[in-house]
Amino acid sequence: xxxxxxxxxxxxxxxxxYDALSIPCQNPLFLKWKKEGRLIPVCPEVAGGLPTPxxxxxxxxxxxxxxxxxxxxxxxxxxxxxxxxxxxxxxxLFAIMKEKSPSCGSHLIYDGTFTGxxxxxxxxxxxxxxxxxxxxxNEEQIDxxxxxxxxxxxx
Length: 155
Ligand code: SF4
Known about the structure:
Blueprint: E1 5-8, H1 9-12, H2 28-36, E2 39-42, H3 44-47, E3 57-60, E4 63-66, H4 73-89, E5 94-96, E6 108-110, E7 118-120, H5 124-131, E8 135-137, H6 142-154
Parallel strand pairs: 1-2, 1-5, 5-8
Antiparallel strand pairs: 3-4, 6-7
Bound molecules: iron/sulfur cluster (SF4).
């Protein structure tokens, strides 16, 4: 059976970022997996009902607020739940998520002050996936993701 991988849609190539751009991952392994049909793209923020483009937002504790101070926690949480459902429905083995996003970041996020300061932490969707015991790699960890995939496929 070919194992599936959940991926942030902006890495997959959707123009779903807050600034309506994508940042397609050009790693050859990622592109190979894409061609094989292994990748399940999801943009938790769009899935949660937010428009594109949208005002950028950052986590402040358990809340998510836009730069203008609007509370978008509900949308972020709804999107996180949708990402988790998609991961389960497709029996994904793990996820590759865009680092530093308030939804998808798995190691680093911005600190909520909109000053470009990063802290250790997870975005809302990454947190929910992790709590559900999915491993998460970022776009710089494709080799590690590949090792994980190989190990799971060999076992
Ligand atoms: S929520 Fe995730 S998938 Fe959507 S644009 Fe942000 S980083 Fe990309």
